[in-house]
Amino acid sequence: MAVITSLAEKRQEKQLRYERNMLRELSLEKLRAKALEHFVPFYTMYRMFPSVVEEGCIDLAIEAYLLGARYSRFGYYGEPAASVRCRCAQEEKYLIDTLFDFLCFWGHIDDDFFSQSLYDACEQYIGSWWTEGFERGKKRRRLKLR
Q: Record's Pfam families (predicted)?
């Protein structure tokens, strides 16, 4: 007798396999370097960048990278990156807000001007990782490495 599997299970397996393949191209050193580059100016009161904050930044960078990679199929079929980004604007905004709230909590940031510049840095950080995932995903599709 054959085992019956649902379409949803097959889709989930395929998505997980694709995400694993995409993550193989990502280095932890690059993730750390970008997190330090974007957020160390906001944490100058510490002698070093807190590891909890660094791990949170890395987690959300991976999520943004995978989000861009997931939507790269639209770019592969000829849609410009700006319009593809509009398709996932709500998910990207959720990642930005999550990162901002996380950083405000761990940095004890209450100043309005300071928090606005931190929010802008979060937008740039998530946006850069989304773009990186989008471009790498498009490249994998062109090379038929899905």
A: DUF2521
CA–CA gap between residue 134 and residue 75 (Å, rounded) = 8
Angle at 90 between CA 85 and CA 92, to 5 degrees: 60
- Pick from 57, 69, 73: which is nearest to 107 by CA? 57
Rounded-to-integer distance, Cα 85 and Cα 81, Å: 6
Kindly report the pTM of this predicted structure. Answer: 0.88
Q: Which two tokens stand for residue 81?
A: 């990156």
74-87 pLDDT, tens per residue?
A: 988 888 989 999 99
Do residues 46 and 28 make contact, with C-beta atoms less than 8 angstroms apart?
no
Structure tokens at 67: 């989000």
DSSP state of 38: H
- Inter-residue contact 99 to 56 (CB < 8 Å): yes
